[in-house]
Design brief:
Helices cover 39% and strands 11% of the residues. Strands 6-7-8-9-10 form a five-stranded parallel beta sheet. It has a five-stranded parallel beta sheet with strand order 12-11-13-14-15. The longest helix is centred in the N-terminal third of the chain and has 48 residues.
């Protein structure tokens, strides 16, 4: 009986094994079948929607001419010729393939020897003035995430962006806080004052609020801090009262909860200035120098980071990379663990010049004489050292975790700086020594290319700090408008 049961059990086991084996074989066959069918339909679609155009090698083809006949085309060239800029003057002398039709801006522009995608709007809708603007940016493709898209949107921003400034008279009790100052902005927090002065002189301001894309809250955090009537302890209350005033006097704040409003602050106390005006912190666009992901009140896709720039006049000093003898340089107060770690690790090194306090010798000479200049986090993630390094042609090393770098959604910081984690401090010299001369020269060349974006001017110039901030605001403007009678 026991033997019979055992045989029965073995037969049952053998049956299930064969059943599972057959089932797996059937499943695999079905998968192969469906894969072949899918590949067939994909091939059929590509074959039916793509066309190959043979172009005589001796007959140059301008991209704007090609786009007239195929206005929505994505163009691929097996071998691109040498060219000046990617604009209407570019000609192709190689065979090109027009792939599937697509809508404008459905693709990213990537410049390489294999492929170039052309935006129809750039080729067909740019006037002569725009060509002049395009040319002034030069061959800066390397430093942008997407130069073509930036240029298109920049030109549109420059033509159409309108900002309403809440009006205040010069005899207002807090005119020193709310209207542009008469004196020349200076010091570490000059960006606040420069922006306000530049905006008031610009074509972006409108007196008709119905035409405004954004509304500017013109208070200055740095001025409030220095006003004895307010001081650091009274800033939060002042902001709360100011928002209460504009929300009761004008209808614009209430219709969006402040989502189409913005303010500009470069002083570090600005990060806590909105604690009693929660709607400002949660809804308004905060354009700030202290732009840390670590701060609960800062939201990178809503708020914008701006550079902290010490204003300088006159011709920009230059020095050849071959004459920069120091490998790296840092000097500053010891007000963070990052800086203390930097000094403890490299304070006695012969190639990395590290100082635990400000220099008694000219700061500019140390920056001009160094290949890399270190920005190390202090009380805040931001300091003026990045702007200083760029101004003097020194490649910045950024040691500030959680720092939302200025223009990070426009400029590719990896092309003109080294962004390192603070845990990399012990490996700093090894990292720098592994950068060959070709790669360093490329970084330094790109530093020169981006200098114009980190420069304030008495009268704003295209692509300077003012215009770059305006572009950041353009990216964050509200796309929904509500018309109200008032």
């Amino acid at each position: 009986m026991a033997i019979s049961d055992a045989r029965c059990s073995l037969a049952t086991t053998s049956f299930y094994r064969r059943f599972i084996k057959d089932l797996l074989g059937l499943s695999f066959s079905l998968l192969v079948f469906f894969a072949l069918v899918s590949s067939f339909f994909h091939f059929f679609y590509v074959f039916s929607t793509s066309k190959l155009y043979n172009i005589d090698h001796q007959t140059p083809l301008r991209l704007d001419q090609l786009l007239k006949t195929h206005p929505q085309a994505v163009v691929r060239s097996v071998s691109l010729p040498q060219h000046e800029n990617i604009n209407q003057s570019l000609v192709l002398k190689e065979p090109v393939e027009i792939l599937h039709q697509t809508t404008a801006l459905d693709f990213d522009f990537q410049e390489s020897k294999e492929e170039v995608s052309v935006s129809p709007s750039l080729s067909s809708n740019v006037n002569d003035d725009d060509h002049e603007v395009l040319g002034s940016i030069g061959n800066d493709e390397d430093v942008f995430h997407d130069r073509i898209m930036f240029m298109e949107e920049y030109m549109e921003m420059n033509k159409s962006l309108k900002i309403y400034v809440y009006p205040h008279k010069k005899d207002d009790p807090f005119a020193n806080v709310l209207v542009p100052e008469k004196s020349e902005p200076g010091g570490n927090y000059a960006s606040e004052s420069y922006f306000k002065k530049s905006l008031f002189k610009s074509h972006f301001v409108t007196k008709d609020p119905s035409k405004a894309d954004l509304f500017y809250l013109p208070f200055s955090i740095a001025s409030l801090r220095n006003d004895k009537r307010v001081g650091v302890g009274g800033i939060q209350k002042f902001i709360k009262n100011y928002i209460f005033y504009i929300s009761r006097t004008y209808p614009f704040w209430n219709r969006t909860g402040g989502a189409d409003h913005f303010y500009v602050a470069c002083h570090s106390v600005g990060r806590s200035a909105m604690e009693k005006a929660v709607q400002v912190k949660l809804n308004a666009i905060q354009v700030v120098c202290s732009s840390s992901y670590f701060l609960s009140g800062y939201v990178s896709h809503k708020d914008a980071s701006i550079p902290q720039i010490w204003p300088r006049k006159g011709a920009r000093p230059t020095r050849s990379p071959s004459l920069r003898k120091n490998l790296a340089f840092y000097a500053g107060a010891m007000n963070s663990r990052v800086r203390e770690s930097l000094v403890e690790t490299w304070g006695n090194d012969s190639e990395i010049s590290i100082h635990r306090s400000r220099l008694k010798t000219p700061y500019s000479e140390a920056l001009l004489g160094s290949k890399f200049c270190i920005h190390a986090k202090g009380f805040e993630v931001n300091t003026a050292r990045i702007g200083d390094a760029l101004y003097y042609g020194c490649v910045p090393i950024i040691l500030a975790d959680h720092y939302d770098l200025p223009y990070a959604d426009v400029l590719n910081w990896k092309t003109f700086s080294l962004v390192l984690s603070t845990i990399d401090i012990p490996m700093l010299k090894k990292i720098l020594q592994e950068i060959n001369s070709h790669d360093y020269l490329k970084l330094q060349e790109n530093v020169v290319r981006v200098q114009k974006h980190f420069q304030w001017n008495d009268l704003p110039v295209d692509y300077d700090t003012f215009y770059m901030i305006m572009y950041e605001l353009w990216l964050r403007r509200s796309h929904a408008r509500i018309s109200l009678d008032y």
